[in-house]
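Give me structure tokens for this 366-residue protein.
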Amino acid sequence: MDKSERPKIGIVIKLVVAQIGFFFVLVVVLGTIMYFYQKNVLMEQFSSNARIIVQTYAYACADAKESKDDLLLLSYIGRIKKLPDVMKAAILDPEMRVQIHTEKSEIGKVMQGDPISVKVVTSNDFLVQTYPGVGGDYYVFSMPIILNMKKVAYLRIDFSSQSIGQIMDSYRERAVLMVIIMLMMVAVGVYAVSFNVGKGISELMVISDAIADEKFDDPLFKEIARRKDEIGGLAKVLSTTMETVKTNYAAYKDKLSFTQMRFNYFLQSIGRYFTKGVIFLDQDNKIIYINSPACAILSTMAEGNIGRHILEINKNAELMEMLSSSLTKPNQIMKTELISLKTSAAVTTVQEETTNEIIGIIIVFY
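Here you go.
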């Protein structure tokens, strides 16, 4: 291209500004989507863990109620208070009177003026409520304590979402820095490309629109891709690359599923060589393998356990608390003494490092 064919500085600047504007909007949209996606993932994990805690302790409290063991109820509430993000916990009777509370000064109070507590005692099932608190919303998870098909009390646990807010604040700060760096790189790159490409900049806009919208069947894009110059070659490469990425991603998901199946079979095979009690769970906490010593510890039959949820064969609060804690520290061995089961156990939550997907849980009693 000779000097007469090069775009003028004014045109190049306009092209640079237009491209920066485009990439800025694209980055902001993608960043916003990723931000809310990340927040939703954290909230789902938060809600899932909280639900397991409430359900586990509600069942445990029912057993304690049946045995009329108030000291055990106090112990459960004390344990709940020590869990991450828990602000307070209480057991209410059907008249909304506080039977047990993490704050001793609250015991004996009647919560009729508290709309949250009113909904707690009028609910027939697991319930989630929110109310504004310090550093973010508080989430109230509650569940009836049922004894002999009758609701005898209600377990209420208040969780704080402040930790999620802190994580998202840090994520937002890093995202802003990345946006600034990306826009600076885009500005330099677009300016250089505008000088070298010149008249072909409009075709590049068409290509970028096709990539953003995944409209590779657009007639104008196909026409550009048939060209023999650099822009035509670029269009062909981008189209081929996007199709390859889609194909590789689908193959990766199939491979991951196949690997999961082989891994489950492998766990079942090696489990037979353990003399200690061993349980293998999948990502949904369903039993892949359980040997006879583990069945004896959990007081369950040796047959018919494969495929069942761990809560279906045993609802021991200490064991469930250990499993919940293990989810927060994947690929680490967590050991604890299970007093109620008169044994000790080591638990490992297996997480795939590249995708952060939970593969399963290994429990060994010793």
